[in-house]
Amino acid sequence: MRLPPAFRHRDFRVFVAGYLPSQTGEYIQHVVQNWLVWELTHSAFYLGLIGFFEFAPRFVFGPLGGVIADRVDRQKLLILTHVLSAIQAAAFAILVFTGSIQFWHIALLVIFIAIVNSVSSTAHQVLICSIVPQDSMVSALALSSATHNLTKIIGPSIGGVLLTLIGSGNCLVIHLVTILAMLAALFVIQPPPFSPPAVKGRWLRDIGEGFSHVRRNSRLLTTILMTYSNGFFGISYSQFLPFFAQEVLGVGASGYGFLVAAPGVGAVAMSSVVSIHARLRRMRRLLVGSSVVYAVSIFFFAVSHSMATSLLLLAVVGSMQMSYRVLARAIIQEECPPHLLGRAMSLFFLDRGFGSLGAVFVGSLGTLLPVPLAVAASALACGLGTWVIPKISAPRTPSA
Known about the structure:
By secondary structure, the chain is mainly α. Helices cover about 80% and strands about 0% of the residues. The protein is built from 16 helices and no strands. Helix 5 (about 105-130) packs antiparallel against helix 14 (about 340-350) and helix 9 (about 220-235) packs antiparallel against helix 16 (about 370-395). The termini are far apart. Mean pLDDT is about 80; it is low at about 395-400.
């Protein structure tokens, strides 16, 4: 068997060994979090609202996180963010064990961890770029995505079962323990020495420099705008999986865990194909194609009433989401100089912020229309955005 290029590097292997249990625990907590919201409110609007709280802080703190990732030691920054994640998980568990948990508690905890993740997600990506050479970059990004999506299989599947066996409080304790694995890995890896920028103290100017670079580069602009469209109209479907599990498919908490895990199955399968390649050709065409299939699959999931069909469609959704996000990150990495990479990556991760707005949009629409119809309409808009954005953001050829 051919060993993926990124796995030939010791620090990347250590990073993945810590990231796998940590992200698994995060998805266990995600299952508990959304299920608690559903039990407390029985409202599609509140499911959408908690999705908004989960990703909206990226709009404010995402670009700031990019500047921080370009200015400070990424290894130390990630250690700090994971300590804060452990504090959040402990507070969540205490509230559940004491029986005092309310919706507003969940909202505050979600906002707090969203701010932390706005910084850590960018630092993760930039750290990966520093521990593998350029010729292994696509492989490293695909394997990182594969690991993340493997946790989307393991975490929700385990979380749905554990939720019924040991309760939500113990699930949150498990998440707290898994964070320690990532902390251990961060203390072990040895990235290249960090060189701080010569000029400091110009935070707003640095953020503006990142925006300007993206705006001037049509390839970057098209790529990032397409991920925003996919985020706003596409990603929000996942926030309503408790509704589909309970009201459409009638499979309960354990079935909900499998619905959340299904996209991860498809993503891992696709990652195994992408990860063996050091580089990919025609990445922009692949980005458009995967985005189209992504939107079509969400549409058919929304109108499905079969658990088997829904799981299959969600697997396709996951494989296409993994594809377009890896391709987008690879394009950004190719188009950005090292001193702007953190800021460009932070702009890319705003797609999750647009996902939070989409969750509120679909949740609000779900108060007027049946929720499956609202998700289907959003999927149609996602496909339309994939067709329109490359046309409006491409550079115009001057007339003769």
